Amino acid sequence: MKKVAIIMGSDSDLPVLKPAVKMLAELEIPFVVRVMSAHRTPAEAADFARNARAEGYGVIIAAAGKAAHLAGALAAQTILPVIGVPVKSSTLDGLDALLSTVQMPGGIPVATVAIDGAQNAALLAAQMLALSDGELADKLLAHRQKQHDSVAAKDAKIDI
Ligand code: RP5
């Protein structure tokens, strides 16, 4: 199975990425977690993205806060799908990171999820990999069913 790379701009982003780590582990998708910065370690970030496809990665999740250029900088170096997670780590509550991540120029797409939306980033990565992996598709369908059943159970129990 193709691997997923979770790249974050700083180790201070890790708490926000935990739901993505948990989801990928639950779906038994191989992944790595790395700290690489578009601004502080630009050469390492570019090298990683350039080599990622050859090294067996299928999707890159890139999380950063403030002037969040990481997802775009990685996307510029690869044709792998890059999912951007804007991180709420500034006085602007993540709106700065959201706009920096989502407003890519034409030609270099980044699939941006919500501010701190790490769980959806992992699910979206899994859905991409599931296009060519029936077993993973079945796990995603089971996850949806579980989610459905949990909400339906709450609906049945509501008491006002
Ligand atoms: C961004 O700046 C990082 O992604 C992080 O969200 C934020 C703060 O980084 P640190 O100063 O905590 O390393 O580049």
From TrEMBL:
Described function: Catalyzes the conversion of N5-carboxyaminoimidazole ribonucleotide (N5-CAIR) to 4-carboxy-5-aminoimidazole ribonucleotide (CAIR).
Highest rank taxon of the organism: Bacteria
Protein name, entry field: N5-carboxyaminoimidazole ribonucleotide mutase
Regions that span the bilayer: none
Family named by the database record: Belongs to the AIR carboxylase family. Class I subfamily.
Reaction it catalyzes: 5-carboxyamino-1-(5-phospho-D-ribosyl)imidazole + H(+) = 5-amino-1-(5-phospho-D-ribosyl)imidazole-4-carboxylate
Pfam family, one: AIRC
Alphabetic keyword roster: Isomerase, Lyase, Purine biosynthesis
Molecular-function annotations in GO: 5-(carboxyamino)imidazole ribonucleotide mutase activity; phosphoribosylaminoimidazole carboxylase activity
Listed EC numbers: 5.4.99.18
Domain PurE: 2-151
Residues reported to bind substrate: 10, 13, 40
Pathway involvement of the protein, from the record: Purine metabolism; IMP biosynthesis via de novo pathway; 5-amino-1-(5-phospho-D-ribosyl)imidazole-4-carboxylate from 5-amino-1-(5-phospho-D-ribosyl)imidazole (N5-CAIR route): step 2/2
Keyword Amino-acid biosynthesis in annotation: no
